[in-house]
């Protein structure tokens, strides 16, 4: 069963893959070609379920039929609904990991990420952490808390990248640790956005990034 939560600027829906029924009939021509290119049966099933989850929830939100929904794509490959769906234009983003799908729908540009928590050495993450971020993480005494905050930071960056459609290179995106609020705050670039952390299960960390004033 889908789990739904509504916030001021967006709503999020997540679901275990076992509860989603893939439907080849929902795919348009481009999606069918993409589906056939997958060599792995698991990848094909994942794609079918992801598209079914996405289109069925968009259809319910917008009052459309799932089969009528066909996506356009930005130059970076992010799907969106073109102006032919006006006035049903909305922003959405989908993420998947460990048999869970996470979807956000909003009237504003949005990005989501969901990741499976696992133990990791901080130095292994140096390719995506700024020196200050790494220093802040290493200052957290308890390993469990450090891992949780590492994934909150990682998912924040991924959600921001997806919300902005890769407008900013990873090396330009940095966060600062707020001891007062015990959370990560976007430090650079200066973009007005809202982050919302989601604990899907004890092993899954999710994050939503919704751009403001766009």
Automatic annotation (TrEMBL):
Keywords: Transferase
Keyword Transferase: yes
GO molecular function, one term: magnesium ion binding
GO BP terms in the entry: lysine biosynthetic process via aminoadipic acid
UniProt cross-references to SUPFAM superfamilies, sorted A to Z: 4'-phosphopantetheinyl transferase
InterPro entries to which the protein is assigned, alphabetical: 4-PPantetheinyl_Trfase_dom (IPR008278), 4-PPantetheinyl_Trfase_dom_sf (IPR037143), AASDHPPT_N (IPR055066), P-Pant_transferase_sf (IPR050559)
4'-phosphopantetheinyl transferase domain span: 109-177
EC number: 2.7.8.-
Cellular component terms per the entry's GO annotation: cytosol
Residue spans crossing the bilayer: none
Residue intervals of the 4'-phosphopantetheinyl transferase N-terminal domain: 19-105
Family affiliation: Belongs to the P-Pant transferase superfamily. Gsp/Sfp/HetI/AcpT family.
Protein name per the record: 4'-phosphopantetheinyl transferase
């Amino acid at each position: 069963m889908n789990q739904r939560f509504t916030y001021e600027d967006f709503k999020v829906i997540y679901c275990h893959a076992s509860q989603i029924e893939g439907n080849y009939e929902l795919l348009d021509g481009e999606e069918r070609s993409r589906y056939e290119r997958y060599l792995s049966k698991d990848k094909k099933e994942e794609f079918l379920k992801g598209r079914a989850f996405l289109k069925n929830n968009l259809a319910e939100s917008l009052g459309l039929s799932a089969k009528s929904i066909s996506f356009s794509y930005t130059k970076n490959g992010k799907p969106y609904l073109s102006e032919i769906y006006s006035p049903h234009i909305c922003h959405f983003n989908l993420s998947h990991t460990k048999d869970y799908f996470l979807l956000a729908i909003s009237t504003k540009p949005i990005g989501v990420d969901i990741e499976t928590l696992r133990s990791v050495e901080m130095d292994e993450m140096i390719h995506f952490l700024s020196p200050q971020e790494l220093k802040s993480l290493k200052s957290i005494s308890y390993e469990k808390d450090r891992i949780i905050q590492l994934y909150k930071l990682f998912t924040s960056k991924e959600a921001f990248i997806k919300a902005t459609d890769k407008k900013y290179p990873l090396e330009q995106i940095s966060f600062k640790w707020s001891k007062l609020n015990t959370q990560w705050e976007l430090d650079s670039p200066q973009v007005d956005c809202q982050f919302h952390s989601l604990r899907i299960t004890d092993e899954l960390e999710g994050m939503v990034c919704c751009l403001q004033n766009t």
